[in-house]
Amino acid sequence: MSFGVCIVVMVLVASANWAAEACPPSDRAALLAFKAALHEPYLGIFNSWTGPDCCHNWYGISCDPETRRVADINLRGESEDPIFERAHRTGYMTGYISPSICGLPRLSSVTIADWKGITGVIPRCVTSLPFLRILDLIGNRISGPIPADIGRLRRLTVLNVADNLISGPIPRSITSLTSLMHLDLRNNRISGGLPRDFGRLRMLSRALLSRNQIGGTIPPSVSSIYRLADLDLSLNRLEGPIPESLGRMAVLATLNLDGNLISGNIPATLVNSAIGNLNLSRNKLEGRIPDVFGPRSYFTVLDLSYNNLTGSIPKSISSASYIGHLDLSHNRLCGPIPAGSPFDHLEASSFIYNTCLCGKPLKPC
Ligand SMILES: *[C@@H]1O[C@H](CO)[C@@H](O)[C@H](O)[C@H]1NC(C)=O
Ligand SMILES: *[C@@H]1O[C@H](CO)[C@@H](O)[C@H](O)[C@H]1NC(C)=O
């Protein structure tokens, strides 16, 4: 072999290797366009985004080892990474999320969390990323709506846009996300009602929607979500009754409906259920507290304060296994406070501002 041929062979082998290892130029170009729309002044997280291979040592980027396509964007503004220790601060970033990320067709997770200053909207085109499993944009200043066709993301397991400025309704199509396990929309400006067929979200285990402007009633279909453990609808504008079926859910452990306009009676099912954390404070509930407490009643929190509850405190409450924090204050209850172990540690503040409750820890009857 002549020297010249040898060089040609070496160059061919080297470029074949390069082609096998580097990310496709289109992925690299999409990432650089994404980066161009952001400004991160303190940590230098984007300094590593150089060189031809975006799968190699680009901060926050990982690729599928087989296809060498970009699979994850993982940029967290609060983390243990040494880059934060060196800077002695948490992250801050401005700019917006460029639609160019939609040029990364194999994306499986997008986490751009806790940068505090990122504005703009959720690019509508994210709903065309067929492999997307995680979309986590918590803790920015993102505004505008959740894309109406979010339901196209059939593989999505986590949708977290909490602590932003998202407005508009919960898209009806959301109930097509039949893989969704974790939905976190807390602390935004979301309005409108909950989809009637919310119960189609069969895999959901946490639905956290507090601190929005959600109105309408609680759809009874929620109670058909077998795995739902945590339902937080507090501090919204929900009205109407509490569906009795919520108290029959197999693993529902936390039910926060506080700070709404919910009316009607407290369903008996709720006090004798798997629920251990029940906050119904600051609603328009009326009628009596159901007298069906029993050994299955185990509450770390039972907060019924600031309602319009009448009658006496039910005798059966003494048979509850445990009540850690009880608040019955600011109602219209009357009569003696039962004695017994769940009450031994409670203070007057649990009972004040009622019509005529009496006995320890209040004044004798
Ligand atoms: C229950 O909800 C009310 C109103 O949102 C809140 O003030 C209170 O702290 C909550 N109770 C507990 C025990 O967390
Ligand atoms: C409680 O009930 C009374 C009498 O029905 C009503 O006048 C009052 O507005 C109610 N209060 C609340 C907070 O719903």
UniProtKB/TrEMBL annotation:
Subcellular localization, as worded in the UniProt entry: Cell membrane; Membrane
Q: Where is the signal peptide?
A: 1-22
Alphabetical UniProt keywords: Glycoprotein, Leucine-rich repeat, Membrane, Receptor, Repeat, Signal, Transmembrane, Transmembrane helix
Q: Which InterPro entries match?
A: Leu-rich_rpt, LRR_dom_sf, LRR_N_plant-typ
The record's listing under Gene3D superfamilies reads: Ribonuclease Inhibitor
Question: What does the entry list under GO cellular component?
Answer: plasma membrane
Q: What sequence ranges are listed for the domain Leucine-rich repeat-containing N-terminal plant-type?
A: 25-64
* Pfam families xref list: LRR_1, LRR_8, LRRNT_2
Give the bilayer topology. Single-pass membrane protein; Single-pass type I membrane protein
Give the family this protein belongs to, as stated in its UniProt record: Belongs to the RLP family.
Protein name (Swiss-Prot/TrEMBL): LRR domain containing protein
Q: Which organism is it from?
A: Trema orientale (Charcoal tree)
